[in-house]
């Protein structure tokens, strides 16, 4: 397995270097890069993979050009739900011998154990960066095999010394532990993680591969004015959606998370009730591409989100004064013609 931190990958300023854990297995490098570009300019990014098979180990690195963007990425993106994973974003440590080879391979786990039980067992021996219990995708049953990635190799060695060959509480046989570097083929046997729909939806609709993308939208940016002429591009070249019934606790970030899997998001604006300091239950999202905006409507309109039925449509543009006058004039002409016909019939 590749080292968790690559000294050649990082620059000298540790305040700009991030490690991202719990990445979905089928997340592409382009999607990964685009997600973090949404916060600010980055110098480099990579998902750590097996060099021979390109198998993702479930974590990656991003180096920002500015420390404030790195901090904002932690505040904004850590905890973000991506498919069936909730990612963790944190400052990465500089490279060094102490952090190499800190990944453990564990077997003979109880079949009912999840990451929670695994963490509880290994937590006393050091700082756990990431843990994983392998599941057979065909049956949904644990393979009784797991991995624990520690902060340092010393911590991993201590865990092996204290736990390997022992039968901890809740186990029926001794667990066997060794360093995971020679066991990457065991990880590959699990195969790719199946796609899991966006949380909080019932029957989320036929989301296509092209929708599983991320966007250059900064969730921390200010609001926008919400103007956009429906199905025609607005002055900024985007297509604005009206999203209703998103709940009173909705924020720009949660609305962004809702729409972003369908394509490139330019701007998000949740409408706020400033007296109650809460969302009014609706907001606007501007997307760059018309087809992606239409896909969002097709997949989300009428579906359940946070216990509510969403209403998603293109935002109707407000008529200009000239258009309103023309419409009124046309209405007067129609009335006049109808009046004439009535008089003619009499």
Note down, in words, how this protein is organized.
This protein has 346 residues and is an alpha+beta fold. It has 3 domains: 1-95, Alpha-Beta Plaits (2-Layer Sandwich), CATH 3.30.70.330; 97-190, RRM (RNA recognition motif) domain (Alpha-Beta Plaits), CATH 3.30.70.330; 209-314, RRM (RNA recognition motif) domain (Alpha-Beta Plaits). The protein is built from 8 helices and 16 strands. The strands form 5 sheets. Strands 2-3-1-6 form a 4-stranded antiparallel sheet, covered by helices on one side. A 4-stranded antiparallel sheet has the order 8-9-7-10, covered by helices on one side. Strand 4 (81-82) and strand 5 form a beta hairpin.
Structural class given helices, strands, pairing? alpha+beta
Name the CATH superfamily assignment of the largest domain. Answer: RRM (RNA recognition motif) domain
How many beta strands in the DSSP annotation? 16
- What is the CA-based Rg, rounded? 26 Å
Organism: Elysia crispata
Main location: nucleus
GO molecular function, one term: mRNA binding
Domain RRM: 16-94, 102-182, 239-317
In short:
This protein has 346 residues and is an alpha+beta fold.
Secondary-structure topology with pairs:
Elements: E1 17-21, H1 29-37, E2 42-49, E3 56-64, H2 67-77, E4 81-82, E5 85-86, E6 88-91, E7 103-107, H3 115-122, E8 128-135, E9 142-150, H4 153-163, E10 176-179, H5 184-188, E11 239-244, H6 252-259, E12 265-273, E13 278-287, H7 290-300, E14 304-305, E15 308-309, E16 311-314, H8 321-345
Antiparallel strand pairs: 1-3, 1-6, 2-3, 4-5, 7-9, 7-10, 8-9, 11-13, 11-16, 12-13, 14-15
């Amino acid at each position: 397995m590749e080292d968790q931190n690559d000294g050649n990958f990082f620059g000298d300023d540790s305040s700009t270097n991030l490690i991202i854990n719990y990445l979905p297995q089928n997340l592409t490098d382009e999607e990964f890069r685009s997600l973090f570009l949404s916060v600010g300019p980055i110098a480099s990014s990579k998902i750590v993979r097996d060099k021979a098979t390109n198998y993702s180990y479930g974590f990656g690195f991003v180096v920002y050009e500015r420390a404030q963007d790195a901090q904002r990425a932690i505040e904004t993106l850590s905890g973000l739900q991506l498919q069936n994973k909730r990612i963790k974003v944190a400052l990465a440590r500089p490279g060094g011998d102490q952090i190499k080879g800190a990944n453990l391979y564990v077997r003979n786990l109880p079949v009912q154990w999840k990451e929670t039980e695994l963490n509880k067992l290994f937590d006393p021996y050091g700082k756990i960066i990431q843990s994983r219990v392998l599941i057979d995708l065909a049956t949904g049953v644990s393979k009784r095999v797991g991995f624990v990635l520690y902060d340092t190799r010393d911590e991993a060695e201590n865990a092996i010394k204290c736990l390997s060959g022992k039968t901890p509480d809740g186990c029926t046989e001794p667990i066997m532990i060794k360093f995971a570097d020679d066991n990457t083929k065991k990880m590959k046997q699990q195969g790719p993680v199946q796609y899991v729909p966006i949380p909080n939806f019932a029957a989320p609709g036929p989301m296509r591969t092209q929708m599983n993308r991320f966007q250059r939208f900064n969730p921390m940016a200010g609001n926008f004015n919400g103007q956009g002429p429906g199905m025609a591009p607005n002055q900024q070249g985007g297509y604005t959606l009206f999203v209703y019934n998103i709940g009173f606790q909705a924020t720009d970030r949660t609305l962004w998370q809702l729409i972003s899997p369908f394509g490139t998001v330019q701007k998000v604006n949740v409408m706020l009730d400033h007296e109650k300091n809460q969302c009014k239950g609706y907001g606007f999202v501007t997307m760059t591409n018309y087809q992606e905006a239409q896909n969002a409507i097709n997949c989300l309109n009428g579906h359940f989100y946070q216990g509510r039925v969403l209403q998603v449509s293109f935002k109707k543009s407000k008529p200009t004064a000239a258009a309103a006058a023309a419409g009124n004039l046309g209405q007067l002409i129609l009335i006049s013609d109808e009046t004439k016909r009535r008089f003619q019939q009499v």
